[in-house]
Design brief:
Layout (H helix, E strand, L loop, with lengths): L1 E5 L3 H12 L8 H7 L8 H10 L3 E5 L2 E9 L11 H9 L1 E2 L2 E2 L5 E9 L8 H13 L5 E7 L3 H10 L2 E7 L5 E8 L5
Parallel strand pairs: 6-7
Antiparallel strand pairs: 1-2, 2-3, 3-6, 4-5, 7-9, 8-9
Amino acid sequence: MITYTTSKTNTELEGILQLQKANLPQGLTQEEIQSQGFVTVHHTYEQLAQLNDIEQHLIAKDGEQVIGYLLAMTAASKHDLPILIPMFEAFDDIDYFGKKISAYHYLVVGQVCIGKEYRGQGILDQCYAAYKEFFGSKYDFAITEIARNNPRSLNAHKRIGFEEIHTYTDPEGTEWVVVVWEWGKVV
């Protein structure tokens, strides 16, 4: 039976890291990257635990096995992962309903992943429903950025209800699409 909860144990954080490692581009074929998507950031256990201490990550479990996750990050984590600093800096420049993103109380979806053998079963949708249930009353919206060259993820997020609000290109030449899932508190 698949359950949706927040990460509370070291074993669950290790499960997130195992799933993350299996879905980094360097371990995938070009065909898998194009058809199944990928994750960009490799976290250390310490980084993941530090983020989890601020807001617990959402996980999907089949029994005791972590089969999916949505990481939770707040603005307090802006400097914890150097690779994500450009994303947070972009938030300082984006206008959203007349205010800068950084003026809102937002939750960053730090990374999303569903295990290969569990894809196409609606688990991502259920993860996001649980994410909103856990965090929707605390934050104005969820926000994330998705590499333009990751169309599976971009399309899945749009299906959930995320809307594209901005794009930018990082110093390495990757185009990022900033998307927001508004939880009814902005307007």
